[in-house]
Amino acid sequence: MMRLIKLLGLLLTSYAGMTTGCNDTVEAAVFNPDSFTLQNGMQVVVISNHRAPIVTHMVWYKVGSADEPPGKTGVAHFLEHLMFKATKNLRSGEFSKIVARNGGQDNAFTSFDYTGYHQTVAASRLEAVMRIEADRMRNLVIDAKEVEPERQVVREERRSRVDNSPAAKLREQLNATIYLNYPYRNPIIGWDHEIVDLTVDDLRQFYDTYYWPNNAILVVAGDITADVLKPLAEKYYGAIPAGKVPPRVRPQEPPNNAARTVTLRDPRVRQPSWQRAFFAPSRIYGETQHSYALEVLSQVFGGGTTSRLYRSLVIEQKLALSAGSFYDADQLGPSNFFIFASPRPGVGMDQIENAILAEIKKIRENGVSQEELTRAKTGLQAEAVYARDSMDAGARVLGAALSSGQTIADVEAWPDRIASVTADQIKASANAVLRQKQSVTGYLLSGKSPPNQPQNRKKTRP
């Protein structure tokens, strides 16, 4: 949940008609949502916030780039682009024009585990966007006339965001290295040579496989109640029949038994950096009992200017311009514990690495102090309070969590679970995860690669 909140910076008793479930409000801990399920299997979540007469309307599909068929990377993201083209009832581009005419804004995103579409409009205009969002769930027209021009748009997006960014290229190679078998090793946007080869049939088959109401979650936040939303959800989404969606079956990771390094040299690099990713469990995958402790560990170790890494490397030793760590527990598959630092001019990568390794050794051997533990918990729990005050944070946090195998109860219980983390659990998690043999170290350096040594992955043993 910590990662989901930062991204903002990121059933009930039977009703007559199209719903099933039980009519209970979830016990409030963060967002106090209401939830019900349509007869076709579509889950609906409502987060009431009446401070302004606006709503955020989001449809989350439980499919992302990690669900793509082998050799078809980029198809989930490509389809996201096409969802703004023609349907059987709307001309190409008309969707966004309707949203704009109603005074709203719209966009979409693709992740490893989900694809989301959202609009923010006045509460009085909600029905207008529900009508067109439901329309494109099953009525999208996918043909070569739309696909070929959009392919060039997607490829240009890849060039601008990845190929022209040395830091993004290194991160892409790190992902491809730390995940030996799991599909997170492939970039969400896709590999360019496979984007080129995607066909109209590939895109249509992906759409027809996954874009069904029983594989989607509707989340509406803002000036709305469940009683008001329910008949609209039944009218527009409840009328769409359920589809035969295959179960989410993904390959599993073998053990990580060798430390690896990735070095990328590029003359465009102005600020070198050192990075290390440790293979780690998530809330759903692997040794899940460590996930909450790892969130607190990341806060203590590298979460801001009061963290151990920052104080040691930036303030005390004056070796780095920046330093920190990051851990994402909210994935359906495995995660990684990420540590980074940028050296000051004249400081070598070996000095940075040795200083970070010394801090890792300290925390593995001695754990964290009670003062550090309390400060970290307080900071994390404050983020939940800030998220509650946001008009759309709840929609984003709950949508992402529900699309990635978690429940409303998991989200609402997050502050209590963070509060229950102990120093002993943090030490145990550090020793379970911060092990060199299950890590990949990345070096982002200025200059060209030496002759006959392409910028690729090099495997070494610890």
Q: What does the model show?
A:
With 462 residues, this protein is of the alpha+beta class. It folds into two domains: 31-236, Metalloenzyme, LuxS/M16 peptidase-like (Cytochrome Bc1 Complex, Chain A, domain 1, 2-Layer Sandwich); 260-457, Metalloenzyme, LuxS/M16 peptidase-like (Cytochrome Bc1 Complex, Chain A, domain 1, 2-Layer Sandwich), CATH 3.30.830. Helix content is 41%, strand content 18%. The strands form two sheets. Strands 1-2-3-7-4-6-5 form a seven-stranded mixed β-sheet, sandwiched between helices. A six-stranded mixed β-sheet has the order 10-11-9-12-8-13, sandwiched between helices. β5 and β6 (115-122) form a beta hairpin. α2 (75-82) packs across α5 (144-163), α10 crosses α13 and α11 (308-316) packs antiparallel against α12. The model is unreliable at 2-28 and 451-462 (pLDDT under 50).
- The CATH architecture designation of the largest domain is 2-Layer Sandwich
Cα radius of gyration in angstroms? 23 Å
Strand order of the largest sheet: 1-2-3-7-4-6-5
Assembly state (oligomeric) = single chain
The class by helix and strand makeup works out as alpha+beta
Order of helices and strands: HEEEEHHEEHHHHHEHEEHHEEHHHHHEE
